[in-house]
Amino acid sequence: MALVLGVEMSSLSTKIEVRDADDGKPLVAGQAQHVGARRGPSRQDPRDWWQALVEARRNAGGALMVNAIGVAAQSDGLVL
């Protein structure tokens, strides 16, 4: 079974979801808040976003062995 990891990064949190690539069925999901995040324009340390991604994966049981990753972000100026 091929797995796809979807990542959505907003200004407040990172959410992930792992789906079966063949039928799109969701398998696991996780979420983590960004440290010091607040609504409206702000600056955040990229390491805080990375830590949120690591924590969201942990909250989804590890989300390992994926074959592809898709990333979406609502924030202005996200640099990966």
How would you describe this structure to a colleague?
The protein has 80 residues and is an alpha+beta fold. It has a four-stranded mixed β-sheet. Helix content is 18%, strand content 36%. The radius of gyration is 13 Å and the shape is elongated. The protein has one helix at 46-59, and strands at 3-9, 13-20, 26-33, 68-73. The longest helix is centred in the middle third of the chain and has 14 residues, at 46-59. The termini are far apart.
Question: In summary, what is this structure?
Answer:
This protein has one helix at residues 46-59, and strands at 3-9, 13-20, 26-33, 68-73.
| Uncertain stretches of 5 or more adjacent residues | none
Total E-strand runs: 4
Strand ordering within the main sheet: 3-2-1-4
Helicity, in percent?
A: 10-25%
Average pLDDT works out at: 85
Major sheet description:
4 strands, mixed
Q: What is the count of helical runs? A: 1
Overall structural class, as computed from helix and strand content, comes to alpha+beta
Spatial extent as radius of gyration: 13 Å
Defining key terms:
4 strands; 1 helix; 36% strand; single chain; four-stranded mixed beta sheet; alpha+beta
List the helices and strands and how they pair.
Blueprint lengths: L2 E7 L3 E8 L5 E8 L12 H14 L8 E6 L7
Parallel strand pairs: 1-4
Antiparallel strand pairs: 1-2, 2-3
